[in-house]
Each structure stands twice: as C-alpha cells, then as structure tokens.
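== Fold encoding ==
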Amino acid sequence: MCSSEKPTAMAVYSTLNFSFRSFVLSTLTALILAISLASVARSQDPVIDRIDATDLRPGQAASVVVSGKQLVGAMGLWTAVGVLRPKEGQDLTKDQPVVFEGNIAADAIPGIYPTRMVTNHGCSEAAFVVIDDLPSIAVTPESEDHKTGQLLTLPCCINGQLNPVRSRFFRVTLTAGQAVSIEILARRLGSDLDPVLIVSGPDGREVAYRDDMPGAEGDTQLQFTAATDGEYRIEVRDVRYSGGVRHFFHLRLGKFSLVSTTSPRVAQAGQNVSLIGTTGEVVSEASPQSALEAFGSLIPVTFRTADADASSMTDVLLTGTATQPETEPNDDRPTATTVAPETQMLTGTLQKEGDIDWFKFTVTEATPLLVTARTREVGSPTDILLQLYNADGGKLAENDDAGPRDAELSFQLPEAGDFFLKVSEIAGRGGVEWTYALDVYRNRPALRVTAPADRINVFRGGSTAIPLTVRRIQYDGPLKVEAVGLPAAIQMAPFWLGAKQSTAPVVLTAADPAATNSDADWGPVSFRITAPDGSMILPAELQLVPPPPKKTDAEAFRSARVRADIFVAVQPAAQFSLTADPATVTLAQGSTATVTIKSTRTAEWTVPIEIALATPADQLPPGITITGGSMAAGELAVTIAAAADAAVGPFSVFFQGKSKKDKAEPVLPVPAINVEVTPK
C-alpha cells in the first residue's frame, strides 16, 4: 500500500493478481476466473530481465540501464523514492535496453526497493534495486579475467552480472590490520544467482569464504582483516558455476557493520527493533520508517556508526497490529509467556538448538483460535511447528505447514480456561537468526486478501480485471471494496462482496479512449475494505501470489519475501469494451430489474460476444437469479431477479464477455453492477 492514509477501526486496508450457452448465463469456477482474467493481453507488457545502475544513492542523480523484452515506448522507471525518465537521444521505437536518468530523494532510506518500467503498453512486474549510500563503480570487462580482475577503490558498491561458467574478480589494496566488510545481494533481488564469496590474500591463499547466510535466501556476507599489506582478490561466483542474463548482483565493500537479522522481524510503525550482528550481538537499535507506510510490506531499516563508510541495511515487516514479545524463560508450560487479551501478534526467537517457547492463553468462554506463523516470508530460516495443549497437558492440535505459507493452527477452544501453545523448530535448529512472528486471532474479525499478480494494465477506453480472493477470518458479513490513490486516468466504482463471498474481479476502467500517454496513466494503488455496519475489522493483509513459471523459465528463481505492492497502468485499447446501464440497481424482494450491457467495438470486431457471470453463481446472495446470453449487436438486456425471500442488503454483480475471431479470444470484464435488495 502506498497510500498515506492510516487504518481506522472501520477500514481494512490492503495494497494492492468457459462454458457458455446462448441466452443461459453460465458460471465460472474461481480457478478459471483467476486464469482468464489475470492473463488478459499480457503479451506486450514490458519485461525486466536486469537493471544495471550507477549512483542509486539518496540525493544523487542516478543512471539506470534496463534490459529485457517488449521495452518499446518507454515512459518512465518508477520507484517509491524517485521516478527516472528515458535519457534523451535514444530510439524508443526499438526493443532494446533503455537508459533512464533521474534524481533519488535525499531522504531515501538505503535498502531494497521495487521498481516498475512503464511503457505506452503498460507496466512491468516489479523488479528490485538497492538504494545504497556507498559510491558506485561500473563493472568492467577486466572483472572476468581471473589473472587481473577489476581494481576497486574502497569504499564502493558495484552492480554486475555473471556470464555462464565465469566468475567476477575484483582487486583491493589493503594495509595490515584493515578490516573490510563484503555483502552481496542477489536472491533477495529476484536474481537467479546463488552467490559465493571467496577472498584470497597477496600470496594467493584463501583467507575468507562464505556461501549461504541463514534467512537471506542464498545471499551472503563476510568480514575479514588484512594480515599483511598488499593486494587482495575477491571472487564472486555462482554455487553451481552457472550464469546468464538473470544472474545479477549488487556487491557492497567497505567499513560497515554486518547485520544478519533484526529482532523482531515484524514490528509496528515506530517500534524499535534490534539489529543483530553476525556473531549474535546487538549492534544497534532502529525504528522502521518509510515513505511507503505499507502495512504488510518489508520496510528498509538501517543504522550507521560515526566511523562507518556506509549504512548497515536490513528490513522488517511493518504491521498495524498490537504485538507482544516472548518473555524468557518460557521453555515449559509452568514458565509460559502469558498472552495479553489485546495481543494480536507474538514475536520470539528460538535462541539455540532445541529451544522451545511456550505461550499461555486464558479465555472466559468457548473461543475460536487461529494462529499463523510468519518466518520464511520475512527472511527467517525457521520452519515452525505449532502445537496446542490444554491445562492437563493433552495435545489438542498441531501444524507445521500450510501450503505455500508457514505453519497455521486452527482450533475451537471448547470452554473457559487456560490453553498452551508450544512453538518449536521442526528440525531443532536455533540461533539469533531463528526468529518468528505469530498472528493470533481470538474471536476477532480480520481479512487476508490474495491477488495473483502485482500489476493491472487497463485497456484504454475500456476495462481490465484482476481476481481478488478474500479469506475471511471469523467474519462472514458483506464487505465494501474501494480503490485508493488511483491515477487520474483510471477509475473504479466501489463494489460489494456479499456475505461469505470469497472471490470477485477488481475491475478498473480507463474511460477516455482519446487520452494521450502521460503520468496520469500509471501509479501505485491500494484498496480499502470496510464492513457496512462499521464493526471493527483489523487491517487486511494482501498477499501476492506469483503465477507458476512458464516452461521456458521453469528454473527462474522466485523470492519468498512477502510483498504487498500493486501498480496500475494504461495499455492500448482491446477489441471491444463493455459497460452496464444502469450501474446501480435497487431491487425489492419478489421483483426483477433489467440492466443493459453495451459494447464498443473496433471496426473489424463484429462477431458475437457471450455475456456470463464472472463469479460462481453460488456466491450470489440467496434468492438471486440472473439471466444473460449472447450479444450479437451493440447491446444485451440481462435480468436480475430477487425471490420473495431473497436476502436483503447490498451486493455486486460481475459480468464478463468472451468472444472469438480467428486466433484471438479476448475475455473482458463489465464494471461491477451494484444491487441493493430492499424489503417488499
């Protein structure tokens, strides 16, 4: 979420991826919805393979080269800390690497940031860059020569890429007793590179080596002290001796503290966290601050000592919920940390091998309990096992895996009393990096919202949809969904998710077919979800679910780091677009209403358009039926009927149109039709 608005008690924020018969409305399963709507016209989306940058530093003029595919018509390179523009003099009509230039905000916090390339055909999936306060040096061909290597002047950072079966070699001149920190970021940026660092002394002997660092997804760091004066060589290679266009890295060298983790890894805005060094010591305290203010997002957090060359960088997950840390000792039930009634998140560390943490819940009546773990998605290597016990020591439930997410335990506490949660590492591992956070839901409503993609490219003069899946936690009522922070060229009418409804398309519209490409076409967006009666629903979490890899890139690495950023842009017009008239309907029990679906087509698109529901019929409110059919010409009347005992209240109807001509088979949405059922 990139909105500056803050959560309220009434709002849930999340930032935000057929069969037809004539005149008989067909329904779709949620799976077909996700596949068909999320994949509409992606063939011309820009694709970023690699970003090579210099001077991505706070307050500096940066230069960035974007390599990839479908880069024609470049308009901008967006980051949360500055927008870069294409360098003058380039031929932007060719699909080739594009050079961008622009200023980075002076108050930008060093760390990892998502970036988007925007063209006149839409925006790319997020790629990731490092904003660094180290001076940057461009990589040179000498770095691939193992006999020479590229000579560096410390301190510095360098962006590069490994070619197949070739390492990169860098030389630095040091004096005896000089300490040097080296950190490499690759996997955390979405790179296919699984890096290894090797340092050799003036005599050619290895003096330092490091492969994986716990919780860094394969990235690593090391620190060494020069034993003698002379030239030291640093080798960067892939653990599999692999390479290619997507084997890119950001290398940092100089005098700065190395940070292996934060404790906790999930924190409230303004809450201090401890930055833990590689030997387990607390090197500093810091408070996560960000212009993004994005709940559910990883936020950069840094510190810098007076004598350091640069900041030490890491990140934490920002949350709006009330957190409580474990209290040691809590290694058994008698010493369990008592969980306060207002606590919504627990944090802790399995500090040594075999460590176990216990928590005590006291309830005054039968209560539903849901506990979900956050580890891998926030950079912790911990593989959590959750076990629930009653006061007599009897095991009630356990869980160690919930599909792509970490452990999740759900249980109905049967009566008033004390219950105990046991937290352990399934392989018995432990140490300062083995942190965890637990979302705790005790009879409190909440939502988790899932999108299959991190961007929505909207057809100019028409609409595009992305399926939104809402997991309801201890709440089954209707929900109102509104867009927050849309670019000026894009609109979305608020819509309703009916009681217990879990899936709906978010339909965005770029209504002006004659608009010209401009910054009004693109930007970050978030969604506000509220309960109609104003009851408290705590901030939603948006989870982006990347699509499965294509056969051509099955080996591509996908980071497990949690993300909550949604971006929108405008793309060229589709073969047709659809609207509804009226878009708002009031319907009494026992009556019907007619809505006209209208089409605007390109001159060559004269084939019929089949109109159908875009959500399963069983997600309509009880007593509601809808008919539709084939649109041979410019419009089609559809009927919405409410039975005499139909559920009273608001809901939204989602249609889509499917058409086929030659090899083209577009599936395009109708903006939501909002319906209010009233008593007869």
Summary: The chain has a mean pLDDT of 88. Residues 182 and 222 are 5 Å apart (CA to CA). The first strand starts at residue 11 and ends at 14.
